[in-house]
Write a structure and sequence with these properties.
Length: 141
């Protein structure tokens, strides 16, 4: 399954970065490809997150997120259009002086009819832009 791991240092404390990552409904404010998000079935640190994203075409999918405040959140796939699997995590570590080392990991499997170029574009080009958007949000929010 295609996947990627990237690490960035964010000039904000772990708790603030965790808050930005777990305020799912606010993603459309700073991630242009995310058109709509809603959450459901929240029970403690677990919540279902339903996405509508525009990457080449509009895709809807749902994931189940497990939040371990303030150090980690991980997700697994529930269902989606053109997608067979989507799992990953954010791991947050204090970097000293109020900074956070954030490691993002994602593995994604799209349907057989989805060209490999789209999968690669999602993982390779979109990932750095997305991480930069989270960094800017946490540093400026």
């Amino acid at each position: 399954m295609p996947g990627a791991t990237r690490t960035i240092v964010i000039n904000a404390p772990v708790e603030k970065v965790f808050d930005v990552i777990t305020q799912y409904e606010r993603y459309p404010e700073f991630l242009p490809e995310v058109k709509e998000i809603r959450t459901s079935n929240r029970q403690g640190g677990q919540v279902d997150v339903h996405y509508k994203v525009d990457v080449v075409k509009t895709i809807r999918y749902s994931i189940r997120v497990n939040e371990e405040r303030p150090k980690r959140m991980a997700w697994s796939f529930i269902e989606g259009e053109m997608m067979k699997d989507n799992k990953g995590s954010w791991v947050l570590e204090p970097e000293g002086e109020g900074k956070t080392r954030a490691t993002y990991t994602v593995e994604m499997a799209l349907g057989a009819l989805v060209p490999k170029a789209i999968v690669n574009a999602l993982v390779d080009s979109s990932l750095p832009k997305m991480l930069d958007a989270f960094k800017r949000r946490a540093e400026g929010a």
